[in-house]
Design brief:
Layout (H helix, E strand, L loop, with lengths): L1 H37 L3 H7 L18 E5 L4 H12 L3 E6 L2 H15 L4 E5 L5 H14 L5 E4 L17 H23 L3 E6 L22 H22 L5 E7 L13 H10 L6 H4 L1 H8 L9 E4 L2 E2 L9 H15 L5
Parallel strand pairs: 1-2, 1-4, 2-3, 4-5, 5-6, 6-7
Antiparallel strand pairs: 7-8
Bound molecules: NADP nicotinamide-adenine-dinucleotide phosphate.
The site of NADP nicotinamide-adenine-dinucleotide phosphate has 29 residues, from helix 3.
């Protein structure tokens, strides 16, 4: 009886401690899951373009007999997409401005994919002459083009202009790809079913299109200029899809996630510091290429066109990204600036 009482007293005294201890242990064991879940809460998932609640997308789609063209393929997301699509058996054309870097990249892509049918060609999206020469070479040399990936990009660079006098970010990220797509469209249509994938960014949602000063000549904010160019990617895809209805050519824009690539080269000190802190939540180039590859090959997207994707799924773009009037005005302005007629 005495023993029992001692146990009872000690037990009731120790019980709260035991409970606290057990809760602590549960918490500790749940911490990885908690962090995991936290990193996939809506905001962070949006930021990083990740969703750990879903199994990562994977597909065994083969691309033998198909031709893929990727801009900016000598590094980062473009190079990873090139390696994946070459592994699936496609002929891959890596369109690069720096042929020295391109030679190193093409060797890596061939080695990794075990596919010798990979070529690189010179393309400077900051020069419409280079774009026209490149497109002419493709139109004359290729019998088909099944997937065009408008991937190349510059971010938050100091103010500079393209050879044609466009502000660099809108010039390369939007105008260059707009013209390239225009020049390759007949080939894409003849190769249908074909896809046009344009790599945008969630930064599009902080942007607006300054129709009166798209080249930021009156005032230049490098962040706004980047966001403007990425919004232009979303609006271009939306407008393009409407124009391509019934042709068998479909269009997609996407956010790849926050990806550790050379794109961050122009970030300032504090921005680099922030990126270091968030780096555990960021993606590798290979992970960052998944949504591009998804948009390029996923059969479920055959009947979809004009949409915006993130983390290998349809995603919500900003209200401005759905503004058809703005999209039409941007389309007309782009045609005027590039001196082309594209109704
Ligand atoms: N990384 C991210 O966190 C992130 C997030 C959202 C969206 N994105 C988008 O993802 C795309 C790919 O970027 P990334 O992260 O892979 O960056 P990256 O590693 O810097 O790759 C960009 C590519 O674009 C090329 N490029 C730049 N200017 C060009 C020009 N005038 N003509 C032809 N090619 C040119 C670069 O060539 P060089 O090697 O010669 O410079 C490089 O191959 C971009 O459109 C970017 O806006 C990236």
């Amino acid at each position: 009886m005495k023993r029992f009482l001692v146990k009872l007293v000690l037990g009731s005294f120790l019980w709260p401690f035991a409970q606290v201890l057990s809760r602590l242990l549960v918490c500790l064991s749940a911490t990885p899951q908690l962090l995991y879940r936290l990193s996939h809460s809506d905001v962070i998932a949006q930021l990083c373009g990740r969703n750990l609640f879903r199994a990562p997308w994977a597909s065994d789609v083969r691309l033998e007999g198909k031709t893929v063209l990727i801009t900016g393929a000598n590094t980062g997301i473009g190079k990873e997409a090139a390696a994946d699509l070459a592994t699936r058996g496609a002929k891959v054309i890596m369109a690069c401005r720096d042929m020295e870097k391109a030679q190193v990249a093409i060797k890596e892509v061939k080695d990794r994919s075990l596919n010798e049918n990979v070529v690189c060609m010179k393309l400077d999206l900051a020069d419409t002459k280079s774009i026209r020469e490149f497109a002419q070479a493709i139109n004359e040399g290729e019998s088909k083009l099944n997937i065009l990936i408008n991937n190349a990009g510059v971010m938050v660079c100091p103010y500079s202009k393209t050879a044609d006098g466009f502000e660099m970010q809108i010039g390369v990220n939007h105008m260059g790809h707009f013209l390239l797509t225009y020049l390759l469209l007949d080939l894409l249509k003849r190769s249908s079913p074909a896809r046009i994938v344009t790599v945008s960014s969630m930064a599009h949602s902080w942007g607006s299109i300054n129709l009166d000063d798209i080249n930021s000549e009156r005032a230049y904010d490098k962040n706004k200029a980047y966001a403007q160019s990425k919004l232009a990617n979303v609006l271009f895809t939306r407008s393009l899809a409407k124009r391509l209805q019934g042709t068998g050519v479909t269009a997609y824009s996407l956010h790849p996630g926050v990806v550790q690539t050379d794109l961050w080269r122009h970030l300032n000190g504090p921005q680099r510091f922030v990126m270091k802190i968030v780096s555990p939540f960021t993606k590798t180039s290979a992970q960052g290429a998944r949504t591009t590859i998804y948009c390029a090959v996923e059969p479920a997207l055959d009947q979809e066109s004009g949409g915006y994707y993130s983390d290998c799924a349809a995603a919500n773009c900003s209200a401005a990204g759905k503004d058809d009037e703005l999209a039409q005005k941007l389309w007309e302005l782009s045609c005027r600036m590039l001196n082309i007629t594209w109704d």
